[in-house]
Amino acid sequence: MAYDFKKEFKSLYAPAARPTIVDIPEMTFVMADGKGDPNTSAEYSNAVGALYGFSYTVKMSKMGGNTPDGYFDFVVPPLEGLWSVEGEENAPTFIDKSRFEWTSMLRVPDFVTEDIFERFKGILAVKKPELDLSVIRLEKFTEGLCGQITHIGPYDGEPPTIASLEHFIEESGYRTEISGMRRHHEIYLGDPRKVSPEKLKTIIRHPIVRKSCLEQ
Hints:
By secondary structure, the chain is α+β, with helices and mostly antiparallel strands. The chain has a single domain, classed as Regulatory factor, effector binding domain (Multidrug-efflux Transporter 1 Regulator Bmrr, Chain A), CATH 3.20.80.10. It is 25% helix and 30% strand. The chain has helices spanning 5-8, 10-13, 42-59, 114-127, 159-171; strands at residues 20-35, 80-85, 100-107, 136-152, 174-176, 184-188, 201-210. The chain has a six-stranded antiparallel barrel. The N and C termini lie far apart (49 Å).
């Protein structure tokens, strides 16, 4: 059977409904950065297409005799996104999406090295010349300590869920600290093209640090 990250790392991809504290280890991702409203941005659409195109090109290499060293079959993990708002350090609001800055990403197996990344990006470029693959990169990302919660419903309905997460983080003796790559993080467990908005499931993570004695 294909290796399924969601089943092997249930605490990361299938958390309980209540908020929890998790320590996220180093993982390998293919990523793309951009700006703007994901609902209308051609840049976002291209990025998502490039990410999935790359991941499925690696996955399906088993069919063409071009499998890389260390290959094993895998289920392509869910799409993830790191979000912020231009000029702000807090979690993003949903008022003016045109100011969004995002990093979209898909987890890939650790056998995907830089050499393999470049090789399969080249294969994908031949298959999908309409995609701009210059936007994607391979990166190892250690997110570290986070508070996380599952949001059920439309993306624009996240603020109350985020407020619940922030309350839990505060009550647990931590505070959210967004900086660099450690940002508001969403993992999309449902496909909005196939699932009604009220049934969408999204994991929301915020990077945290323990509060000092002075803060408490």
